Every structure is written in structure tokens, then in C-alpha cells.
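sanity check this fold:
=====
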Amino acid sequence: MRIVARTALWSAVLFAVLVGTVLTSATVGPADIGVLGVAKAMLNGVALPTSLQVDVATGTIGSAGIPFPTLDFGYTTPFDFAVSDTDQTIVTGVRMPRILLGAVVGFSLASAGTVMQGFFRNPMADPSIIGVSSGAAVGAVATMAVPLAIPFGLQTAAFVGALVAAGAVYAIATEDGRTPVATLLLAGVAIQTFLGAVISYLLLHTGEGLNEAIVWLMGHLSRATWDDVTVTLPVAVVLFALLLVYARDLNVMLLGEEDAHALGIDVERTKRLLLAGSSVITAAAVAVAGVIGFVGLIVPHTMRLVVGPDHRILLPVSALAGASFLVAADTFARAGPVEVPVGIVTAAIGAPFFLLLLRRKEVHAL
């Protein structure tokens, strides 16, 4: 019960910090809109479903007609505050998609980083350690070098590339049904190095798309849309729930695989689920935002110093802190006279901060 209470308390505090960060971020921009105006516009944008109508449409596959259901929801807006149309459009149509996508991406990367650091028992581990980010980069840059007619284009290619890379690392490291952590780490390093060479080669053939490719590789949220949010958010929530279910098992695995097995943990099955969940949640984030570093490294480590190593508390706390951190970093990235990719900001903040922890000898083995 004490764990539940601590988790609830820390989560409530960090959720309040996230709400404050989102509201503050939404006030930043060329148009001067105060916190109160932002809050009113956000509430005006809330729509609650009131009805559902199911219709049957007919599609065709070849010459055959195939019926399929379509859902038509009716909505109502419970709030109607006095906000100008311009401010309403700026807040809900321009700023909020970017801010909320930043929160979802930060939430996802911090969640995956927390699990990877526990999985590898290494505070230097992050979501990209098994090649997910490099695989996504290959997929994304490939669509710029060789235009491909696939649904959702770059995002789909990046997502598939991330999963293929993670799957390749797992397959290489697995032998006789066992996946040694050290072998998995080395396979990840090798695949990352190889994919780095592939990315460099593809960049030579991107032509006019070179600038776009470089910006994507730096990590960005400048092209965020509500579609990105609605696609990424459910993936993040479902996979976070999966990872949280196995938080206790991850605690036990910190003792070592033999001890975990002796305590009743199906070690190999737990490894597969943790790797799959971390890979997919990272792939979803990278596919819509590019390669954003240090969020999954710095945030979990910092939160571990604050709340301790128990993943039942650490995982939700790190996820919420990661969401706030990336929203704040992106706000800083777009607040200056010239907008910069958010990946530059996270690296500029994260690297010195991590060096400070090293100097203070607060980077420990897990």
C-alpha cells in the first residue's frame, strides 16, 4: 500500500507540473495569449461523445463488394468561453498539437529509457541501445532518397525500420531460446554502427531533400498535427500499461537472471515482452518526431536519484517527467528568433547535466 501511495503522490505532483508546463508553453509564440486565454481555448476545444451511429458501407476488392461498418460519433462541447476566433485557432490548431505531441514523445522515450536502464542494469542505457532509433532513421531517410508510395510515407517507413532493426538485434542475440543481455548489447552496438553507415550512404543520395533529412535526424516537432497525436497517444498508453505490469518483474531481474528464475520469474518471456514493448513505444515516438536524444537517458536516471530504483514508482514518475521535459525543451527551441530542432536543445541540456552527475559521482550501477 505504501508503494501505491507513493506512486500516486509523485504522479499527482508531476502531472500538475506537466499541466503547468503545457499551459505555459502554449502562451509562447508571436501572438500574445495569456495563461487564462490558453486555458479557456483549451476547454472550448473539449468535445464529449454523445451519440454513436453505425452505418454499413460497401467497399470493393477486385470485382467483389465487401460490406464494412463505419462509425459516426456525435459530439457536444460543454464549454463556451469568450475567446476570439484567432486565439482559438492559434491555441487548438497550431500550438496544442505540437505541445501534446511533445508530451507524448517525451512520455514514450522516458518510459522506454527507464525499462532499458533496468533491463541492462546500466545507467547509460537508453531507448536507442538496441538499434531502434537507427532503424527508424534508415526508414525515414530512405523515403527521402528513394520516394516510396506507402501509406503515411515517412512515418510508416520509420516505424517499420525501427521494428526491423530491433527484431534483427534480438534474432542475432538469441540462441537456443536464450537471449544473454551482454550479447544483446553487443549486437545492438554492431547494428547501430552498420545502420549509421547506411544512413550516411543514403544522405549522399537525398539530393534536394538533404536539409529535410538532416532536420529529421536532429529531432523536431515543428510539423506536428492532431493526426500524429491521435495515432501515437494510444500506442504510448497501451504499451506503457504493458511495461508497468512487468515493473515488479523488472525489479526482481535486477538481482540477476538466476535469482529471478529462482523466485519464479519466466526470465526469457519477460525479456521478450520488455524488449518488444520498449521497441514499439520508441518506434512510435521516433516515427513522428525524429531522433531525439538524452530524454530516455537523463530523465530516468534523474528520477531514480529522487524516488529510488523501484520501477513500480520510477516508471510512471519518469514518464511524466519526460513529458514535461520535452515540452519545456521544445518551448525553448521555438522561443528564440530562429527555431532550432528540439534534439539540439535536449542534447545541449542533457550532456552537461550528465557530466555534472558524473563529477558528483551520482551515476551508479543499478
